[in-house]
Amino acid sequence: MPAQTNITPRSKDYAQWYQDVIACAELAEPANVVKGCMVIRPHGYAIWEKIEDDLDRRFKATGHKNAYFPLLIPLSFLAKEAQHVQGFAMECAVVTHSGLRAVDGKLEVRNQLEEPYVVRPTSETIIGHFFSKWIDSYRDLPLLINQWANIMRWEMRTRLFLRTTEFLWQEGHTAHATHEDSQAEVLRMLDVYRDFAHEVMAVPVIRGVKTANERFAGAIETRCIEAYMQDGKALQAGTSHDLGQNFGKAFDITFQNKTGQREHVWQTSWGVSTRLVGALIMAHSDDEGLVLPPKLAPIHVALVPIWRKPEEQARVLEVAERVAKELREDGLEVVLDDRDDVRPGEKYYHWERRGVPIRIELGPRDIDAGVAMIKLRVVPEGTDPKAAKKTIPLADIGVSIGKELDAFQAFLFERAKKRMHDSIVKVDSWSEFEKVFADQGSRFVLAHWDGTTETELAIKEATKATVRCLPYPEDVPGFDPRETGRCVKTGKPSAQRVLFAKNY
């Protein structure tokens, strides 16, 4: 299938722009033969691998170990925790039969299972079963486990990376002797996600506490990180759940404490998924295509050698290969685009679409001058486009490119942070609230809410805006959680402002 070349402008159709960027960068495509699923192509999967590698290092640094649990979960396991099964019942895919046989040239299912299996929508239940076998004493705690896996949730409306029937993720599961210890784990892992989003994804996030209505099914509290997308919508980029003793009691996970008494453990779970790739796309990319922060870019540098005369080709390629080798030795991923049947302009276009942070152009005159021409994928708005190009010495080029990449990473974060902060508004009247969210509009809105699920659902029904979280004050400039007021919808007393937005 030929690669797509046209990208719809964001201002014209943001949803189509998103799909076009993915197609042009060859990140993924719908798996039309399997409803609601996607095929992650090599360039897209390479981004996920970098996400996985960095997070895995962070998890292990905090004492967690990787394990793997079955994809199929006995149906009876889900039934043991009432809130959990209620929260996931409509999204479950269920296996009821095994085996096939050919009858008159047609395939028929052979055997009905004694008990149906649910294809993993999340793993709290089956992991709870095994925790009950592994934990006996306070000496076995804390138990800190992480799993990298695929998940299946039967989605009605799907969108590549953001919401698909099958997706990839990690899910942390831990057990502790006290509630204080499990609460500390919830906070610690939320901060791990925040640090990763800021330092690696270059995406600023707001930490906060979910409302009871938005809480993970079976948790007593859910904390989240919310990211701002360029269309004003929020994307929940990660969650960390305080499960209390709900699953401990459901699966009889007990331990003998230091005084010889048996107690139920306190548990947490936390996770992020391939929707982080969607967050990257929507936080950074533009109408020219994909933009990636260097720390997650599968290719850091596209090196394009240029020659006009046949006798120049060998000399230019020799120097280009030497430069590519030097950059690779400095730990950079480099593609040397030496195709001789493609014009330089087409090569530039190709790598820009794929989000390569820096392009190096190298021709005979550059070599004679001992320099190379580089072009950054994006420059600050209002900057002369010519500023995206500059010459750097060939000597110690790895050091120069490394500095450019570091500056580019920092620029993307600061640009995204400014967009988010500029979007945040305080709203005190219902008419103003409706105006902000009219039609396709959205921003991050701080408004008072009376704390009831009834009002929360009424606001969502009227505007499609939801309470994203009760935000951490340090993550929102000028936000004071002690500020009381009146609910923007009902006028009833409100203990504090909360963060509203439309969301993905």
Residue-averaged pLDDT: 95
Give the helix proportion (percent range).
25-40%
Distance between the termini: 29 Å
Strand content: 25-35%
- CATH C-level of the largest domain: Alpha Beta
- Structural domain tally: 3
Structural class designation: alpha+beta
Give me the Rg, rounded: 26 Å
Poorly predicted residue ranges: none
Model description:
- The protein is of the alpha+beta class and 504 residues long.
- The protein folds into three domains: 14-284, Bira Bifunctional Protein, Domain 2 (BirA Bifunctional Protein, domain 2, 2-Layer Sandwich); 299-407, Rossmann fold (3-Layer(aba) Sandwich); 423-501, Translation Initiation Factor IF3, CATH 3.30.110.
- The protein is built from 14 helices and 25 strands.
- The protein has an eleven-stranded mixed β-sheet with strand order 3-7-8-14-11-10-9-22-25-21-20, with helices on both faces.
- A hairpin with a 5-residue loop joins strand 10 and strand 11 (234-244).
- 40% of the residues are buried.
- The model has no long low-confidence stretch (mean pLDDT 95).
